[in-house]
Design brief:
alpha+beta, eight-stranded antiparallel beta sheet, globular
């Protein structure tokens, strides 16, 4: 603390952000994409018909009829009803003696099975966001440590910048290091509440893994019992030997209306269908509430009478549900979701400008070769990661539909493209790397709508629009790189740095 508190915070801000900066950028970017997880999944399943879904009651009736015909003796049924964002009904059933559920997608209009291509869809970006496509425990711990350092960087950054709000209105383009700092400050302040909220709530979502000692103390080490209590889970009873017809779908809709009013059913879970002890659980859609913990109704499967209700009661449970819900933002209407997505992109660019600022400030250092390697990694994450995401979309359309394990191949395409950008960034001149990867990124995103027009049923959709906008953004970046003074000439210092690398 010899240099003073503010200087110490500046040191903490620099190194807490730099150590995990590349990782945080990937987490932020894939997290921003996760706001449109359902839309991405729908785009990557072009076999799913587009358009507004049919009524909830009709979808429920037809799904129950379909399961009654195809899986009458299953231990349990699950029905995920269609939504405006993903207009398809998913039916699942667990046969006797099996642990896994069988699954089928149904057209909500005709209730005929849809045979979509195998793909992880938007779930890939969502999973990568919080566990990096690694084994769950390892990936979530890495993301947790990165998030903690991000939170430290945010707090120390606010303390460090004494003129933070004045700097917000200051941007001086074409000034090298000064421009990078201005951009970093502006983006930091622009969505500061979002950065604090999304980082803190992200830590809360996995807090039971990071600090489990309270659970172990109360539940004697049985964490499964804690999560069952948190989610009000009751294991289904063994099917009875006597048979009985299930309650009609109209009775289920009536119970939902009486308890929830205009609230919609998201999932119907039916235990022991066709038996006298059948039990039906209605799970409410959380899109009209902030909390991520849904309301539930438990009904007698034969009579349809209400047995019990389950809400997020209790201050601790309600507080956790709200924080988790704020992070997931299932409640967000289209405009708010767009603003959250833009804020996520702003956070991504904020991290990118911070990483590049660190390199620009040290380019003239005697160990310039090291900083050249670091800047190459910057390019591979700042531009290479979006290029890999575009490659993921290309893979969805180009990988043959009948290829075994094609969903894994799509993921391999993503990582292969990203790896190639890393290698390219290390072997080419750094000025050419920036330009060439920006050009490739612009072309890749511009090509997605064209590819969809050729291979998909509907080229006019939100994802294609976003791809056009991203193509324009990277084309603008390329134009700026080509016309900037540093892009038109190679100074002696730059040549020396690149020769040492």
């Amino acid at each position: 603390m010899k240099e003073g508190f503010r200087q110490s915070m500046a040191w903490l801000h620099t190194w807490s952000g730099l150590i995990v900066g590349w990782l945080l950028l990937a987490i932020f970017l894939t997290g921003a994409a996760s706001y449109y997880r359902s839309e991405i999944t729908g785009w990557m399943h072009p076999e799913i018909p587009s358009g507004a879904p049919v009524s909830q009651s009709q979808s429920l009736k037809q799904a129950m009829d379909w399961l009654h015909d195809r899986a009458p003796v299953a231990n349990s049924w699950l029905i995920d009803l269609p939504t405006e964002r993903l207009p398809v009904t998913q039916v699942m059933w667990q046969a006797a003696g099996e642990r896994r559920y069988n699954s089928e997608l149904l057209n909500p209009a005709s209730q005929q099975p849809v045979a979509p291509r195998k793909t992880f869809g938007g779930d890939f970006f969502y999973g990568f966001h919080f566990q990096l496509s690694l084994p769950p425990i390892i990936g979530r711990w890495i993301v947790g440590v990165a998030s903690m350092l991000m939170f430290i960087a945010i707090i120390s950054g606010v303390i460090t910048h004494r003129r933070i709000f004045k700097d917000f209105f200051t941007f001086r383009p074409g000034k090298g290091q000064r421009s990078w700092l201005d951009a970093h400050n502006t983006l930091s302040v622009l969505a500061l509440p979002f950065h604090v909220l999304i980082t803190y709530t992200g830590l809360v979502t996995l807090m039971f893994m990071y600090v489990p000692w309270g659970i172990d103390l109360v539940y004697g080490g049985d964490r499964g019992a804690y999560f069952r209590d948190l989610r009000d889970f009751t294991p289904p009873a063994a099917p009875a030997t006597e048979k009985a017809d299930l309650a009609p779908y109209a009775r289920l809709n009536e119970q939902a209306r009486q308890q929830w009013g205009e609230g919609h059913i998201a999932r119907v879970a039916i235990g022991s269908p066709g038996a006298t002890n059948a039990r039906i659980e209605l799970i409410r859609d959380t899109q009209d509430q902030v909390s991520s913990l849904p309301q539930r109704l438990v009904l007698n499967g034969v009579s349809g009478e209400l047995i019990e209700t389950s809400d997020a009661t209790g201050p601790a449970k309600a507080f956790y549900g709200v924080l988790y819900g704020l992070h997931l933002a299932h409640f967000a209407e289209p405009l708010l979701r767009l603003l959250l997505f833009i804020s996520g992109l702003g956070g991504t660019i904020m991290i990118a400008t911070g990483l590049q600022l660190w390199v620009v400030k040290r380019k003239g250092n005697a160990t310039g070769g090291l900083y050249r390697r670091i800047e190459g990694l910057n390019v591979a994450v700042i531009i290479g990661l979006p290029l890999a995401m575009a490659g993921f979309f290309w893979g969805n359309r180009l990988v043959p539909g009948g290829l075994p394990g094609r969903e894994i191949v799509e993921v391999q395409v993503f990582f292969a493209v990203w790896l190639m950008t890393i290698l390219h960034a290390q072997v080419r001149s750094i000025r050419r790397v920036w330009r060439e990867q920006a050009l490739l990124c612009a072309l890749a995103f511009a090509g997605v709508p064209l590819l969809d027009l050729i291979t998909g049923p509907d080229a006019v959709n939100g994802l294609n629009l976003f791809c056009v906008l991203f193509a324009g953004a990277f084309a603008f970046v390329l134009w700026r790189l080509c016309r900037s003074p540093s892009g038109r000439r190679s100074t002696r210092a730059t040549r020396q740095i690149e020769s040492r690398s």
